[in-house]
Amino acid sequence: MSDWPLLSLTIFLPLVGVAFILFIRGEAEVVAQNARAVALWTALATFLLSLMVWANFDPTRDGYQLVEQATWLEPLGIRYHVGIDGISLWLVLLSTLLTLVVVLSSWYSVQERVKEYMITFLIMDTLMVGTFCALDIVMFYIFFEGILIPMYLIIGIWGGPRRIYSAFKFFLYTLAGSVLFLVAIIAMVSEAGTTAIPELTRYDFAPAMQTWLWLALFASFAVKVPMWPFHTWLPDAHVEAPTGGSVLLAGVLLKLGGYGFLRFSLPMLPEASALFAPLVYALSIVAIIYTSLVALAQTDMKKLIAYSSVAHMGIVTIGCFTANPLGLAGALVQMLSHGLVSAALFMVVGVVYDRIHSREIAAYGGLAERMPIYATLFMLFTLASVGLPGTAGFVGEVLVIVGIFNVTPATPVIPAQGSWVALLAATGMVLGAAYMLWLYRRVIFGALEKASLATIKDLRLNEIAAFAPLVILVILMGVYPSFFTDPMMPAIERVLAEIGASSPTRAAALVP
Amino acid sequence: MPALDLVPLLPEVVLAVAALVLLLLGAASERRTRTSETSGEAAAIVTPLVVAALLVAAVLAAVLDKTPGLVLGGHFRFDGFAAVLKVLVLVAAAASLLLVSSYQEDERIDRFEFPLLALFSAIGMSLMVSAESLLGLYMALELQSLPLYVMAAFQRDRLRASEAGLKYFVLGALASGMLLYGCSLVYGFAGTLAFSELAAQFGPGAPQGMPIGVLVGLVFVIAGLAFKLAAVPFHMWTPDVYEGAPTSTTAFLAAAPKLAALGLAVRLLSGPFADWAPQWQQVIVLLAVASMLLGAFAGLVQTNIKRLMAYSGIANIGFALVGVAAGTNEGIEAALVYMIIYIVMVLGAFGCILAMRREGRYVEEIAELAGLSQRRPLMAAALALLMFSLAGIPPLAGFFGKYFVFLAAVRADLVWLAVLGLLASVVAAYYYLRIVKLIYFDPAAEPFEPPAAPGLQIVTALSVVFVLGFVVVPGPVFAAARLAAAALAR
Question: How many beta carbons lie within 10 A of that of residue B288, not counting itself?
Fold first, then answer.
């Protein structure tokens, strides 16, 4: 089994589905139905393949596994080079799972241009998995940037009333950040003479060069994460995107920024990371507190959840730059839990939006009466988002907070401001509880007074099927987190070793 | 040495003989059909033969022995660079002719002179990339340009086309004047026209460096070439000519001549003046920066798709010049890769533009593309992919050109140029995205007529396949560019 090119199969299988969908002909209704079926089976097969990847992954081993290499773009030295480690393993699984969930959840809600819809989502699947598996920096960029094309189309074609503005903003904002990343890639490649990520990680860039490279990378990842003040595209994109688009945007695309920090900024540019860590802390804290306050003031459900995403991703960025095992593991768990929870919350909004066609909080109230299953699920994900112990949200937040307290002695690279950062970050979590619970009260509790809600139906079977894996994983991650963190640890230790391996005297010169 | 060894010039010989024979054939068959109203019969015979001649010449250029050799009294040179560029230029010219024949018919300008003028121009282009002396350079350039002036004014009943032709001619003549003046300065100070002798004079170990007169002459020559490339600040003719000329001419103009002019510029700069890169580098950098920025910003407000393609072309020449500005062999390779990808995309884009026909009329407003995806999904997908590729979004072909060009720039310590260029490409992305937006996001307008011509469909389809498949098989384009650039390394 292990000699199969499992990763390549996982990456490119969705494209086979795309090819099949392209050849579907006939009446509109039949085409739509067949496209859904093909997409479902393809997404399922891809997910199963990614489970095979997981089964073949040895969690005790260090380094990249299931590595495949082939010559590809010889003149530029770019190779086809894929592999995974503990950092990317779960993100690959998250991508394939969420694609499957999206196909399921939009079974009935998408009726227009179903064929194209399914094609774009399957292409997204390929690009997302490819991004996480790529071990060649140019290949990474190709997947990373290629995601813009399907996402632009998803927002623009199936989005809400202001979809065109949002699609342009999303595309151009992200592209502007990414081209600086491209310049950094070019500079790194011409300096180190290789495009392989493992080799670039080992290369020692001069401190002065690191500063510039770090800023260029930051421009791209900070937009993706998104960090305050580069987050303004996110509320627009989320609000206007169709449910499926929001699910992948929140669930996977935001993780690309965090993944970028863990894969590139930290291990390749450790001195600069140490230098800029306070900046990241400051921006993250502003993100956590400020966007939480903004979320409190929202009247649009999707916008509220979008702002909560910015706050939650602030925890991730703090965790990434703690430079100790707890903090990094916390950042990764927080990414996974946010990937599941925010995806689920966007689907929760999508469920009622499909029925009432309004995202205004004021349009709802008392849904518990007619939608008990829905209310229960919504409760679970609300609590997970708040960070209730026993759910996924808690683990990530607590690990990051403990991690940031621990910053000093073991890691001389990062200056000690831990307790202040922890205190302020925790404040943000209190605010998080406030806006989420308040949202829940306004939508679910109270009397069912609005006439438009009188006949609203509870969840359909396909919706329950879509929610089921998310429910299971959110609870599993809450009660048995080491199941998820154990495979991460070797990879995290390696990242930390890279940071530690960099010359301490040079780092000391940089840190005031 | 044999008195007249024409073997290395075989492609041009074939083309020239074909041009003369077909001229007679066209004239004869037109006389026969003059009485009837249709004039298209002669063109219907001549066009396929011209395409065939171009392809035969391309094959000849590909198979000829590529050991460098001089011909025609040392004014032209055949080597790997010439071979690769000849193949590309001739194939691009043939593809353009295949694209436009249905347009010519529909617009009732399907006279047999059109493909023949294109053929003469192609001979010029083919010689341009072989030029080995200032005289050869000038003659080839004029042979390429003069037919283009006529082609721009080919729709002689239309005011706009005549205006375009006249504008192109007057400004082109001015540029030729500058070029010739530059040549004369170089000749006056250096005493020779041949590139090899110039290289010997100004090569390493040259006693006194480059006389200022030669430098001034070189700048004039570059200005003349920049006009042909439509690089800012010598771009003024481009939007008007692109828009005013019949679309068939525009499609021809936008592809092959650009590549030939770039090839000529590269041959000149990396040949006799290779060791004086710091002298001309700043001029090329200026042209590149100005072209990228103007092309990106001015394109934002265009409503006519041909004008948009003009500004897009200006921006893209800027990107290609970034590679030339690097002043290294790798930079030349990058510029060639960029241009190859660009002309393929541009041919595909014009394939789509030439299919914008509604109620018997060709339309040129960008807004006419609204909702294309619902009426003509294949054409919509093709145009959208080409636009994303022009914007340089991976995994499409356009990205690789940009990556390589900026890699060369960074390696030549021109990091700021790379940053500036990539930011300009973000600005330009807006207008490409706007077309995608119209195609996919907007409500459908009246459908276009289905294109009848198979030539147009085949060329467009091939272009899209190239754009999509490049990521899978990127090797051949890079190999060709490497072969060409290696021939220039002295």
Answer: 28
